[in-house]
């Protein structure tokens, strides 16, 4: 019999069936019937009074119609006169009905002043200098970033270039903070290392290295990768090789046998074939199978 598994979709289906069954369930309360009036007389009277009140009109007795009770101009209250009138002053000049003022609305004297200012007919301390500025000069100024300044390459530590000079075989040596000079590359000789004295490596690393065993005591990569080697598939167990096989050879047996069910893999351990395990099928349960479970539960 195949092993069944339940996916999220099938679990969601099962839970929806349980939910549907619970929708028709009515909880039973001890001492109460499904159709009995269990309200006390006082509580029922309160409910009836609340319903009657909700159906009645609730306009206040002193309610008034929407009438104007005052007049304001720009948020300021206007007080009626003794004749119970409110006077609102509205400009009545030639510009009163205009949202914008044009040149023709100005008198001659004001018009002359405005035109003189717009045409540059005025004087100031730097007029001679400003009159010499052309549009090309303004375009150049617009192309300069804010806060820009003449660049000066820094000469501080970390910003200096490699010095000139030097010869083959020389190296740069530290001279001062941020400064290097060319010099000879001196040979460095290292002493043999011990577990207590540094040499070609640190004494700590030498001690770690000494603690390792001989190389022959460790498995080679080839030893690990050649543990099992798949050699092929045979129709039944009688077709397994009887000679020439080496430890680690693996075959798939298509038919059921003494080694296991259909699809069992066997490996040669040096003296015999050893079963590595068979194949089995995992299937998803169906909605019909879930329905049958609910049917079986309902039948007791």
What does this 3D model show about the protein?
The protein is 27% helix and 15% strand. It has helices spanning 8-23, 41-55, 108-118, 127-130, 135-142, 203-210, 221-225, 287-299, and strands at 3-5, 72-73, 76-77, 170-176, 179-184, 229-234, 249-253, 264-268, 273-277, 282-284. Strands 6-7-8-9 form a 4-stranded mixed beta sheet, with no helix packed on it. The chain has a two-stranded parallel ribbon with strand order 1-10. It has a two-stranded antiparallel sheet with strand order 2-3. The radius of gyration is 52 Å and the shape is flat. The two termini are 24 Å apart. The model has no long low-confidence stretch (mean pLDDT 81).
Largest sheet, in brief, is: 4 strands, mixed
How large a portion of the residues is in β-strands, by DSSP E?
5-15%
Report the average pLDDT across residues.
81
Low-confidence stretches: none
Termini separation = 24 Å
| Strand count | 10
Gyration radius (Cα, Å) is 52 Å
SS-based structural class? Answer: alpha/beta
**SS summary, helix count:** 8
Q: Estimate the global geometry from the Cα principal axes.
A: flat
């Amino acid at each position: 019999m195949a092993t069944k598994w339940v996916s999220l979709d099938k679990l969601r289906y099962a839970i929806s069936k349980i939910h549907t069954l619970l929708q028709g369930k009515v909880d039973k309360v001890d001492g109460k019937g499904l159709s009995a009036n269990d309200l006390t007389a006082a509580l029922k009277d309160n409910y009836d009074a609340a319903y009657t009140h909700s159906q009645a009109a609730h306009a206040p007795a002193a309610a008034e119609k929407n009438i104007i009770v005052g007049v304001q101009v720009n948020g300021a209250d206007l007080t009626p006169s003794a004749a119970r009138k409110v006077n609102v002053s509205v400009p009545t000049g030639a510009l009163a009905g205009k949202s914008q003022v044009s040149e023709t609305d100005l008198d001659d004297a004001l018009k002359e002043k405005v035109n003189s200012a717009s045409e540059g007919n005025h004087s100031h301390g730097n007029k001679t200098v400003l009159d010499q500025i052309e549009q090309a000069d303004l375009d150049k100024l617009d192309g300069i970033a804010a806060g820009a300044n003449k660049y000066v390459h820094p000469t501080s530590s970390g910003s200096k270039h490699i010095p000139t000079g030097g010869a083959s075989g020389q190296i740069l040596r530290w001279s001062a903070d941020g400064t290097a000079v060319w010099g000879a590359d001196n040979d460095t000789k290292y002493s043999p290392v011990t577990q207590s004295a540094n040499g070609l490596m640190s004494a700590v690393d030498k001690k770690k290295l000494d603690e390792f065993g001989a190389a022959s005591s460790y498995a080679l990569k080839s030893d690990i990768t050649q543990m099992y080697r798949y050699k092929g598939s045979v129709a039944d167990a009688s077709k397994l090789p009887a000679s020439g096989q080496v430890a680690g050879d693996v075959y798939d047996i298509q038919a059921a046998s003494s080694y296991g069910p259909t699809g069992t893999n066997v490996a040669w351990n040096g003296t015999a074939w050893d079963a590595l395990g068979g194949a089995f099928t995992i299937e998803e349960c169906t909605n019909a199978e879930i329905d049958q479970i609910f049917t079986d539960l309902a039948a007791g």
